[in-house]
Amino acid sequence: MNPYFSTRRSIRAYDPDRPVSDELLSDLLGQAIQAPNTGNMQIYSVIVTREPERLAAIAPAHFSQPAIRSAKVALTFCLDLNRFDRWCRLGGAEPGLGNLQGFTWGVIDTAIFAQQFCTLAEMEGLGTCYLGTTTYNAEAIAEQLKLPQGVIPVITVTVGWPAENPPVQPRLPLGAVMHFEEYHNPTDAELAAIYADEESLPENRRFVEENGKRNLAQVFAEVRYPREQAEHFSRVYKEFLKSRGISL
């Protein structure tokens, strides 16, 4: 097993005195742009935010998480139909990606691009952290970044030289996610065994107790990611997408 990948961790605290050079950032993004994508359309863009006042301005849209407050750079990876659509029309063609299929292609390809960058950056010794708040406040982010019609924030990654060495987060056993030939639907006993190690971790047991729940599943479903919250942000994001010319 490659030791780099088996010890990968998210970094939320960055060295305030060590900048990430433009040259290094451009080199890493230049390599990442070789990532696979649908039909080589590359319907994505990335907005680099590094000026301290601009980082401070965008932080509230990410609930001012430690990672965005500490970051030397924030990269907002966007689905970009603006560039592709305009190119098509300049060529006398009518583009047709402002729909669920085009959105799905764009999100997948944007995510691949972002992960390719993260892998390359971390192999250079940089720390990165995905922010899960980008789709929550896409409209505010779009306003801050002056995104035109057809450009949709999908993923934000903070970047910097690590100022912490957090523990490696546990993952489910490989057997839980790898299926041969056809999907194996686990029995209840197998399902309990899959999550047993994660549920037994002291920090997770403490989390369950602090939230007054019976188990970790209740914490995830009722505290961290409740249905009401997911449905609210789904409506908000869907309305934003509609306002940007994407019909789902």
List the helices and strands and how they pair.
Elements: H1 3-6, H2 22-32, E1 44-49, H3 52-58, H4 66-70, E2 73-80, H5 81-90, H6 100-123, E3 127-131, H7 138-145, E4 151-160, H8 174-177, H9 188-200, H10 202-210, H11 216-224, H12 227-243
Antiparallel strand pairs: 1-2, 2-4, 3-4
Helix pairs in contact: 2-6
Write a compact overview of the structure shown.
The protein is α+β, with helices and mostly antiparallel strands and 248 residues long.
Structure description:
The chain is of the alpha+beta class and 248 residues long. The protein has helices at residues 3-6, 22-32, 52-58, 66-70, 81-90, 100-123, 138-145, 174-177, 188-200, 202-210, 216-224, 227-243; strands at residues 44-49, 73-80, 127-131, 151-160. The protein has a 4-stranded antiparallel beta sheet with strand order 1-2-4-3, sandwiched between helices. The chain is globular.
Task: Based on the model shown, name its key terms.
248 residues, four-stranded antiparallel sheet, alpha+beta, 4 strands, 12 helices
